[in-house]
């Protein structure tokens, strides 16, 4: 793991910047803040900037952990009951801004019109009634390991998680592609476009609002939901691996993959890959003030189960999607400056 711990001196130096920005921008969703983030990030400590650049450019690990950010639980207040309850002024805005600035050093943040009402920054917390759903808001069952948004051609290069609360030390699980024995796997078969991946449940209409109040956005989002429905009904075949065959990238989400019409070779190759991933899965326990940047090309991730309290003390994370090629999604965004994929 690529890891850096912020010092007390770092936090003292960061405080005026984060306080000023939190006083200037009322919400992390402010388009001007998101546009300026790459420039504002230049004010972060130089050793942090160098650390993030090393992770971005040399790929030393599939997980980059920045820890030690000051988080005051009393200021945060209770964990919301639902991500929709965080629309008002955020109690974690300074931490969210730091998270955004770090992310901006790796690429461009973006959101999905089909997830959490089109927000850029998501809340990850247990929701009553979702305990056994295959969603990030579940709790009593494991969240199956996966590539984030594996089904979509515009999936991010990184998925990032910032911990605000984790009282039970629930484990995030990660497998780094660098830990797999590629010589023991049928890489040739896994590079072939023979594998069907369906949209995951978080992109389904029932898990977001049916209307934004904006007719243009509603029309575009309806188009997105129609496309997702078509991908569920007629899955597109894609490879599981891509890039360098000796050090490949991965894109798979076994829970949302149907293999009824796969060839025997494809099925065997896939099962062998999954077996290796299971054997090389590692626990990462995020504590308040920890930020994990997970390379979505080089790792799969999930989460072990935990028992929710629903008393305001539950696990609470923030999540960002980051791409190094925002232009690659231009056909999916209404304008060049828009950071929401429809």
Describe this structure in a few short sentences.
With 342 residues, the protein is an alpha+beta fold. Helices cover 28% and strands 20% of the residues.
Derived from helix and strand composition plus strand pairing, the structural class reads alpha+beta
SS field, number of helical segments: 8
What are the low-pLDDT stretches, counting only 5+ consecutive residues below 50?
none
The name of the CATH architecture of the domain at 2-172 and 283-341 is 4-Layer Sandwich
Major β-sheet profile: 8 strands, mixed
Radius of gyration equals 20 Å
What is the helix/strand order? EHHHEHHEEEEEHEHEEEHEEEEE
Distance between the termini: 34 Å
Outline, from the CA principal axes?
globular
Strand content: 15-25%
**Number of DSSP-assigned strands:** 16
Overall mean pLDDT: 95
Helical coverage, percent range: 25-40%
Quickly name the level 1 CATH class of the domain at 2-172 and 283-341: Alpha Beta
What is the CATH homologous superfamily assignment of the domain at 2-172 and 283-341? Clavaminate synthase-like
Provide the CATH topology of the domain at 2-172 and 283-341. Double-stranded beta-helix
Structure description:
The protein is an alpha+beta fold. It has helices at residues 8-24, 31-40, 46-58, 73-76, 93-104, 187-190, 215-233, 264-279; strands spanning 2-5, 63-67, 108-112, 122-124, 143-146, 158-165, 171-176, 195-196, 237-238, 241-242, 249-250, 282-285, 291-295, 299-303, 316-323, 340-341. A hairpin with a 6-residue loop joins strand 10 (241-242) and strand 11. The model has no long low-confidence stretch (mean pLDDT 95).
């Amino acid at each position: 793991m690529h890891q850096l711990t912020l010092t007390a001196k770092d936090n003292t130096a960061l405080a005026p910047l984060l306080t000023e920005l939190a006083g200037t921008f009322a919400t992390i969703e402010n388009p001007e803040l998101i546009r300026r983030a790459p420039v504002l990030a230049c004010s972060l400590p130089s050793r942090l900037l160098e650390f993030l650049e090393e992770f971005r450019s040399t790929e030393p690990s599939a997980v980059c952990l920045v820890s030690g950010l000051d988080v005051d639980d009393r200021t945060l207040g209770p964990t919301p009951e639902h991500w929709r309850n965080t629309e008002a002024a955020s109690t974690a805005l300074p931490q969210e801004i730091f998270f955004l600035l770090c992310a901006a050093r790796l690429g461009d943040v973006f959101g999905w019109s089909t997830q959490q009402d089109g927000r850029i920054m998501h809340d990850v917390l247990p929701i009553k009634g979702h305990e056994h759903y295959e969603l990030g808001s579940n709790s009593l069952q494991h969240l199956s390991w996966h590539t984030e948004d594996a089904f979509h051609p515009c999936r991010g290069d990184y998925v990032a998680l910032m911990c605000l609360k984790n009282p039970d030390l629930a484990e995030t699980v990660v497998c780094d592609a660098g830990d797999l024995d590629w010589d023991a796997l049928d890489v040739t078969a896994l590079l072939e476009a023979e594998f069907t991946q369906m949209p995951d449940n978080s992109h389904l209409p029932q898990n977001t609002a049916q209307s934004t109040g904006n007719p243009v956005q509603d029309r575009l989002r309806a188009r997105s939901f129609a496309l997702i429905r078509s991908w569920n009904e007629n899955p597109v075949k894609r490879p599981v691996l891509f890039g360098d065959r000796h050090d490949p990238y991965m894109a798979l989400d076994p829970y949302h993959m149907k293999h009824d019409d796969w060839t025997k070779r494809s099925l065997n190759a896939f099962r062998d890959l999954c077996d290796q991933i299971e054997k090389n899965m590692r626990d990462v326990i995020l504590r308040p003030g920890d930020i994990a940047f997970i390379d979505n090309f080089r790792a799969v991730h999930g989460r072990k189960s935990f028992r929710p309290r629903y008393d305001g003390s539950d696990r609470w994370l923030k999540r960002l999607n980051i791409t190094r090629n925002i232009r690659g999604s231009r056909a999916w965004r209404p304008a060049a400056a828009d950071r929401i994929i429809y």
